[in-house]
Amino acid sequence: MNSPPLFCADRAIALFLDLDGTLAPFAAQPDLVAPSARRTAIVKACADQLDGRLAVISGRTLQDIDRILEGAVTAAAGVHGLELRGGYSDIRRLAPSPAVRHAKFIFDATADLRPGLLVEDKGLSVALHYRNAPEAEVEALNAAHGLAAETGLVLQRGDKVVELLTPGPDKGEALRAFMTEPPFLGSKPLFVGDDLTDEAGFVAAAEFGGYGVLVGARSGPTAARYRLGEVDEALDWLAAMAEAHGKARALSEASASWQEGAGWRA
What we know:
alpha/beta, Rossmann fold, Alpha-Beta Plaits, eight-stranded mixed sheet, four-stranded antiparallel sheet, 12 strands
């Protein structure tokens, strides 16, 4: 797959961005992913040039999104779409399934027996990370599959992590919800992500005439139309996109000013 274009002349675009593996590299533990001045500046520049048509759709909570991006993004969906904050800061959040508490208890017991496993409690979901214990992958997956069958929680695999979620919207449904309201209404969505969890976003973007951009070297089938390299290449592309849209806006404003002045006669 080729790299995506920097500018879409046919209609205004909107950016929907995953966070881990897309805007930020993975770390040994989720809380070790720290803010970055360059990342924050690029995200702000894109949001400004697109008149606010930028949202982050992540497996992280809204609180963690704000921590890592230093509050640069208003519109965001956390926990894979289970909590959503619109462009005007209104927050919609599902009630957590009581089964999440039970799943956390079992995950904690599994992690106690396996050094390197890490349990992440997101309230609406609970994740079992095996990045630091790759040899425990089968054990982690077996525990998660058993709990999903027992409790009805939704099993979601990610990059060196398995997660059990309160049943509800996914990343694709989060994108669809954003697309029904300003400032996203009528735009062409581009969903940029790296993981299996982002495939639903790629599909939803195509439904609105947009497309998905896969970040990284993940193999296997994908609904994305374009591909970028790792996080640094994705950030470089976003920075170039903001610059391209800034130049197009400046040219448009200059043209409008000329037409309104003495140089234009109908």
